[in-house]
Design a protein that fits this description.
Shape: globular
Structural class: alpha+beta
Distance between the termini: 33 Å
Order of helices and strands: HHEHHEHEHE
CATH superfamily: NADH Oxidase
Strand order of the largest sheet: 1-2-4-3
Radius of gyration: 17 Å
Number of strands: 4
Largest sheet: 4 strands, antiparallel
CATH architecture: 3-Layer(aba) Sandwich
Number of domains: 1
Number of helices: 6
Helix content: 40-55%
Length: 188
């Protein structure tokens, strides 16, 4: 798959098949994630791949996280209540994804650099997953429940950046149009 094709073809997948994802595929996409550039080459990211009973524990936390940011969504999508209800359902099931990847950054003096670097690594991961026939979607609203998530996972001293459900797409959404006017040219 060509890079431009991967970038344009990757979609945010919110409905997954139940088919298990081979560990080898997960290892490949995680390895490619870690080839991302990082601030001062710190590479201070940390990934946790989750399936099984821990994944089910996390789902309960994710569903409760939705209720915290629901009022904001209802405000943003005041004229589209079906979107809010669809998101509620997604947070209860995470689309049935067989795997979750939790992405962490280091905490400390370079906190913002490491958070940004982890986000860059996640873009690599999402593109690599797409190239492997897998789907993902960026979710970061659940960080409002970071303490509970970290307690379940036994994580200390790290900052949760996002959680990506990973699996084989059951539905691929249409490609939305790109917005115009997002680039300013100076001195050309």
């Amino acid at each position: 798959m060509e890079l431009a094709e991967a970038i344009r073809g990757r979609r945010s997948i919110r409905k997954f098949k139940t088919q298990p994802v081979p560990r080898e595929k997960l290892e490949r996409i995680l390895e490619l994630a870690m080839w991302a550039p990082s601030g001062m080459n710190r590479q201070d990211w940390y990934f946790v791949a989750v399936q099984g009973p821990k994944k089910e524990e996390l789902l309960k936390i994710f569903a409760s996280a939705f209720e915290i940011f629901r009022p904001r969504l209802e405000n943003v999508f005041a004229d589209k209540p079906k979107i809010v209800e669809g998101m509620k359902l997604f947070f209860q099931t995470y689309g049935g994804a067989p795997v979750f990847i939790l992405a962490y950054a280091g905490k400390g003096s370079a906190d913002q650099w490491d958070t940004n670097s982890t986000a860059v690594a996640l873009q690599n991961l999402m593109l690599a997953a797409h190239a492997e026939g897998l789907g993902t979607v960026w979710t970061d609203g659940i960080v409002v429940r970071e303490a509970e998530i970290n307690a379940v996972m036994g994580i200390e001293g790290r900052k949760l950046v996002a959680v990506l459900p990973v699996g084989y797409p059951d539905e691929i959404p249409r490609v939305p149009p790109r917005r115009e006017g997002r680039v300013q040219w100076v001195g050309f």
